Amino acid sequence: QVQLQESGPGLVKASETLSLTCTVSLSSLSRSYWGWVRQPPGRGLQWIGYIYYNSGYTSYHPSLVSRATISVGTSESQFSLHLRSVTAADTGVYFCARGSMSSPATFDTWGQGTHVTVSS
Amino acid sequence: ETRLTQSPVTLSLSPGEGATLSCRASQTISSTFLAWYQQKPGQAPRLLIYGASTRTAGTPDRFSGGGSGTDFTLTISKLQPEDFAVYYCHHSQTFGQGTTVEI
User: Fold this and answer.
1) Fewer CB near the last or first residue (10 Å), C or N of chain A?
2) What is the pLDDT along chain B (103 residues), one digit of tens a residue?
3) What is the DSSP code string of B84-97?
4) How many of the other CB atoms lie within 10 Å of CB of A91?
């Protein structure tokens, strides 16, 4: 069964860029969609976006499209999230996930999540 | 952007009882892309149902999904202790705010 693991700094300063990497237990991420979801403390889920590995096609939530970039990693088993100009509102748990074949925006396998705090 | 409104916010039930969770979309959506997730404290969400009514492998058959258009439901026929959790409906770029099923 495929496994995903998020990694990155747990603390980011306001106005800087949050960068996270997702490492997948596969030799290649091809022919699949890979995405990110976040969860502010004590709140619900927010869909961030996804990338189709083969083409690099991306889709982002309208509220984040100007600040978010999802990209494939230097390793064929990794993909990344970069979120620019962060504020305290970007604090939360960030999950990476795999898009399902029935719908790329529906995530069928998830990482355990990584906590990110934005400090002022 | 489609909004998803879940009700009730909290459902207080006992093991063995049935539960019906509602998800209402602000406009007609395709049931093909309507999914339900379960999340327990400190854990990642788990996909239970996609395509409005198709259970994922490993989802017990006491969970069933239905609906179309703007109104969708998740039904749990007989609550087991492990079913007490938060449930989210999801479509495309939007999650509902969640329903907490508590003992």
Assistant:
1) N
2) 899 999 999 999 999 999 999 999 999 999 999 999 999 999 999 999 999 999 999 899 999 999 999 999 999 999 999 999 999 999 999 999 999 999 8
3) -SEEEEEETTEE--
4) 18
B95/A45 touch (CB, cutoff 8 Å), yes or no: yes
Contact A72, A53 (CB under 8 A): yes
**Residues of B whose CB is below 8 A from A62:** 1, 93
> What's the CA angle centered on A53, arms A71 and A64, to 5 degrees?
40
List chain A residues with CB under 8 Å of B32. 102-103
- Between CA B99 and CA B76 the distance in angstroms is 13
Strand extents, DSSP E, chain B = 4-7, 10-12, 19-25, 34-39, 46-50, 54-55, 63-68, 71-76, 86-91, 94-95, 99-102
Write down how long chain B is: 103
Hey, what are A3's tokens? 């496994």
Contacts for B55-61 with beta carbons within 8 Å, 24 or more apart?
Answer: B56/A108
Beta bridge partners of B72: B23, B67
CB A1 within 8 A of CB A107: no
C-alpha distances in Å from residue A47, one per residue of A4, A53, A75: 17, 18, 24
